[in-house]
Predict the structure of Wyosine [tRNA(Phe)-imidazoG37] synthetase, radical SAM superfamily.
Amino acid sequence: MQPTVKRLTPEDHSRDSAGLTYVYPVVSRRAGGLSIGINLNPNNACNWRCLYCQVPALKRGSAPAIDLPKLEQELRGFLHELIYGRFMQEKVPPEARVIHDIALSGNGEPTSAQEFEQVIRVIGEVKDEFPLPDTLKVILITNGSLIHRETVQNGLGRLAQLNGEIWFKLDSVTKAGRLQVNNTRMSLARMRENLCLAASLCPTWLQTCVFKLDEAPPAQTELDAYISFVDALLRDGVQIKGVLLYTLARPSLQPEAARLSKISEEWMETFAARIKALGIPVNVTP
Ligand code: SF4
């Protein structure tokens, strides 16, 4: 393959930066290295519409049919280039020249792909062809809304065998908050059920985006509800690895973009301390 990317920076998340359909490289500030992204939503379709979403021309919908042979070929070709070619030296900053993970994270919800389980199988098979460290993670970044589907659960079982991790989106646990931030009417009960299922199948982190809306941070009632929810989960023995707390890294591409702004590190650390007091780790990315 002949990658055509310019030198990558943490700000560069363009899904077509390697000129491929499904596979793209990202220097991830959260991961601290190079992340091999797999985008199962080249049609820019998601079943949610988060206010901070950075997908261009986002539309409501599901992933299209996945061309599995093409995905396999792209992943194999890209891994070959990373390990044996000059891509790392020419395109990746020196401090990020380590393959940190393979991440299913794209322009929409990855689990909406009908072929989700087969995709995980393909990743496992191709990964095994290369001398990659055992510590390499395969991460699924998901809004968690489709985990009740059997095929998704089968995929999550396979994911666990690949040193997998689920990053499960949890921005709000109130009906009004979830409607406002994620534009979803999915019930809290369904979300909790899906979260419990996820955590039972594969190591699961909560990923929580905090930001100011019209200059105001999340309301105290929102924060209290979040803390109570996580506390109850832990008391019920749900195995949550921890919380990834982050704020806006790049501008939203949604119509509300001008109303959103980053929240301060101090605010995040204060909230993180409340979560940590429940007994789980929190990784803050200001
Ligand atoms: S779940 Fe992800 S892809 Fe979907 S709208 Fe939200 S941020 Fe965008």
Notes: The chain has one domain: 23-284. Confidence is low (pLDDT under 50) at residues 1-6. The chain is about 35% helix and 20% strand. The two ends are 36 Å apart (CA to CA).
